[in-house]
C-alpha cells in the first residue's frame, strides 16, 4: 500500500489536475458567469507558468512530499492518530476534515499578518476570476504553506491515504471554486452546504476589504459559518463587483516577472492590517 501510494501519487495528482483544469476551462466558455475584460492570453500564460515554478520550488526545498511525511510518521509512530487505536476509515475521514480546518486558519493567517499578506496578495491581485486564479500563488507562499501542511500531517499522524485524498480534493476544489462558471441559484445554495462554490468564493476576491476578509474556505464551507467569516453575496452583486485589490490594477501587473517581485513592492495605497482572527472569530 505504501509503495503504491508513493509510486502513483504524481500520476494520480497530475491526472486529476489536468482533467479538472480542462473541464473547468470548457465550462467557463460554455456557461461563464462574468464577462471578462482581460483576455485569457493576457493572464493565463503567467498564471500557468507560476504553477511550474511553484512545483519546482517545492521539489527542491521539500524532497519528501506530504504523503511521504505521513508514511514516515506511521513508520515511527509519530502523531496523535498513530498513538490511538481507531478504525482506519475514521482516521482517514477525521484527518481530511482536520487538514481542511488547518488550511482555513492558515488562509486567515495570511490575511492577518502583514508580511504574509504581501505574499498572498499576489493571488488576490488577479484582475479576473477564473480557474487559473486558483493556481496563482507566489512560490514563497507555497513553500510556507507546504511547511505548515507537513507539520500538521506529522503532529496529527494522518494516514497517507487521507493526505493523498486531501491534496487531490483540495487542488480540484480550488480550481472549481475559482471558476468563472454559472450555477443555478438554487443549486448553488444547496451545493454550498457541502463544498465552497464559485459564487461563494468569488466574494473573497472582491476589491471591498470587508468582503476580501470573508469566505476563507477552499474546500469545506462549514468553517466560515462556524467562525463568523461567512458572507453570502457581494454587495455589488456578482456581475457588478470589482475583482482584485486596489494596489495592483495595471495590465503589466499580470506579467510573471511583476507577480514574482510583487511582495517586495510598496504600492502607494497600503492595506491596513486588521486581523480577521481578532475581529471575526467568536471563539477568541
From TrEMBL:
<protein>
    <submittedName>
        <fullName>Sterol desaturase</fullName>
    </submittedName>
</protein>
<dbReference type="GO" id="GO:0008610">
    <property type="term" value="P:lipid biosynthetic process"/>
</dbReference>
<dbReference type="InterPro" id="IPR006694">
    <property type="entry name" value="Fatty_acid_hydroxylase"/>
</dbReference>
<dbReference type="GO" id="GO:0016491">
    <property type="term" value="F:oxidoreductase activity"/>
</dbReference>
<feature type="transmembrane region" description="Helical">
    <location>
        <begin position="12"/>
        <end position="30"/>
    </location>
</feature>
<keyword id="KW-0812">Transmembrane</keyword>
<dbReference type="InterPro" id="IPR050307">
    <property type="entry name" value="Sterol_Desaturase_Related"/>
</dbReference>
<keyword id="KW-0472">Membrane</keyword>
<feature type="domain" description="Fatty acid hydroxylase">
    <location>
        <begin position="93"/>
        <end position="229"/>
    </location>
</feature>
<dbReference type="GO" id="GO:0016020">
    <property type="term" value="C:membrane"/>
</dbReference>
<dbReference type="GO" id="GO:0005506">
    <property type="term" value="F:iron ion binding"/>
</dbReference>
<feature type="transmembrane region" description="Helical">
    <location>
        <begin position="150"/>
        <end position="170"/>
    </location>
</feature>
<keyword id="KW-1133">Transmembrane helix</keyword>
<feature type="transmembrane region" description="Helical">
    <location>
        <begin position="51"/>
        <end position="74"/>
    </location>
</feature>
<feature type="transmembrane region" description="Helical">
    <location>
        <begin position="80"/>
        <end position="105"/>
    </location>
</feature>
<dbReference type="Pfam" id="PF04116">
    <property type="entry name" value="FA_hydroxylase"/>
</dbReference>
Amino acid at each position: 500500500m505504501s509503495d503504491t501510494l508513493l509510486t502513483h501519487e504524481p500520476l494520480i495528482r497530475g491526472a486529476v489536475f489536468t482533467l479538472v483544469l480542462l473541464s473547468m476551462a470548457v465550462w467557463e466558455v460554455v456557461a461563464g458567469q462574468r464577462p471578462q475584460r482581460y483576455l485569457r492570453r493576457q493572464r493565463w500564460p503567467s498564471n500557468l507558468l507560476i504553477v511550474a515554478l511553484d512545483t519546482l520550488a517545492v521539489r527542491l526545498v521539500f524532497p519528501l512530499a506530504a504523503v511521504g511525511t505521513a508514511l514516515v510518521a506511521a513508520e515511527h509512530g509519530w502523531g496523535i492518530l498513530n498513538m490511538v487505536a481507531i478504525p482506519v476509515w475514521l482516521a482517514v475521514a477525521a484527518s481530511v476534515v482536520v487538514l481542511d480546518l488547518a488550511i482555513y486558519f492558515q488562509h486567515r493567517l495570511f490575511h492577518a499578518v502583514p508580511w504574509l499578506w504581501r505574499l498572498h496578495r499576489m493571488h488576490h491581485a488577479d484582475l479576473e476570476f477564473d480557474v487559473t486564479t486558483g493556481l496563482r500563488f507566489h512560490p514563497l507562499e507555497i513553500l510556507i504553506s507546504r511547511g505548515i501542511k507537513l507539520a500538521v500531517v506529522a503532529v496529527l499522524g494522518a494516514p497517507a491515504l487521507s493526505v493523498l485524498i486531501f491534496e487531490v480534493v483540495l487542488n480540484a476544489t480550488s480550481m472549481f471554486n475559482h471558476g468563472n462558471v454559472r450555477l443555478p441559484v438554487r443549486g448553488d445554495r444547496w451545493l454550498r452546504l457541502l463544498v465552497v462554490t464559485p459564487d461563494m468564493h468569488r466574494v473573497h476576491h472582491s476589491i471591498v476589504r470587508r468582503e476580501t476578509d470573508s469566505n476563507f474556505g477552499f474546500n469545506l464551507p462549514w468553517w466560515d459559518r462556524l467562525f463568523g467569516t461567512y458572507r453570502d453575496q457581494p454587495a455589488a452583486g456578482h456581475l457588478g463587483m470589482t475583482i482584485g485589490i486596489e494596489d495592483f490594477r495595471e495590465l503589466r501587473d499580470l506579467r510573471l516577472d511583476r507577480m514574482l517581485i510583487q511582495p517586495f513592492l510598496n504600492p502607494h495605497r497600503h492595506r491596513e492590517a486588521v486581523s480577521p482572527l481578532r475581529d471575526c472569530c467568536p471563539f477568541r
